[in-house]
Specification:
Structural class: alpha+beta
Mean pLDDT: 83
Number of strands: 9
Oligomer: single chain
Strand content: 15-25%
Low-confidence stretches: none
Number of domains: 2
Helix content: 25-40%
Number of helices: 7
């Protein structure tokens, strides 16, 4: 039974506040200690999971790879088949900290979120492969990393300077087709494909790899199975544990929301006041 000595104020408002920010509904009801306990326990569990999972356990959709040798989801020009991420329906109960995933899902589905050529000068660290290079001394598919510079004009041109995995220096001139992956996508790395400049004997090959993506364009954004596989490969069981932490935080806040709505149940007023007729005078 609810304790009549505690004023819950507007229970509807308290419930909304408790959903949006763990503990906020209890602070509104002047139940400050309980609000602080809920806030610390729930938010530390949620953000602890985010840190353990390198910011990637929370997302609204899984974007499935289309298969058949097609490009990854962030390089496809059309929309990919999607399936809801069931874990998010628990994470959302943490409130505002999990809501960027809804915004990122909307941004991902924007018709303008498509692979594109760079429209501004680009200078970024590149990781990937050089494919089909005819340069003497280089393999047909060589792993490289280094600095990628692009200058868009009527025809995109640029250079790449870096090293192979063996430490050998490499330098390529770029000219022609350059495509960057979708700006909004659930990976800290943005896909990029660049044609190497021809030396007059035909196309020399391509650079295929990734560059850094801005935090606000990948945090809690949808991703495909290929990206999920990379996360599991890099983080192993830590990614699964991180997801569980964020799920637990959502479940805990369901209890906090209910407590803000119904109030504490100390038992005051539950006493049995029925006279005991069997008691002798």
């Amino acid at each position: 039974m609810k304790d009549p000595r505690i004023s819950l104020g507007s229970r509807g408002l308290a419930t909304i506040l408790a959903f949006l920010v763990p503990g906020a509904g209890h602070v509104y009801q002047r139940r400050h200690l309980k609000g602080a306990i809920f806030a610390v326990c729930i938010l530390s569990t949620f953000f602890g999971g985010l840190v353990l999972g390198e910011g990637q356990p929370v997302y609204f959709q899984v974007i499935h790879d289309a298969g058949g040798g097609m490009a990854s989801a962030q390089m496809q020009s059309g929309r990919s088949p999607t399936e809801r991420s069931l874990g998010y329906y628990v994470q959302i109960f943490v409130g505002i900290p999990a809501m960027p995933a809804l915004v990122q899902s909307w941004r991902y589905r924007n018709p303008l979120n498509l692979p594109r050529e760079p429209d501004a000068p680009l200078n970024a660290e590149f990781e990937g492969n050089v494919v089909g290079s005819g340069q003497v001394g280089h393999q047909q598919n060589q792993r490289i990393n280094g600095e990628l510079r692009l200058e868009p004009s009527q025809r995109v041109t640029g250079t790449f300077t870096g090293t192979t995995t063996d430490g050998d220096p490499v330098h390529f001139d770029l000219s022609g087709r350059v495509v960057l992956g979708k700006p909004v996508f659930g990976s800290p790395r943005q896909a990029v494909e660049c044609d190497l400049a021809s030396d007059g004997l035909g196309m020399q090959g391509q650079l295929i790899g990734t560059i850094d993506r801005p935090f606000l364009d990948w945090f809690q954004a949808p991703r495909d199975n290929e990206e999920l596989d990379r996360m599991h490969d890099r983080l192993s069981q830590h990614f699964d544990i991180a997801c569980v932490f964020t799920w637990i935080a959502g479940l805990l806040n369901i209890m906090a929301v209910w407590d803000a709505f119904g109030g504490p149940a100390y038992g005051y007023g539950d006493e049995d006041n029925t006279p005991n007729n069997d008691k002798k005078a």
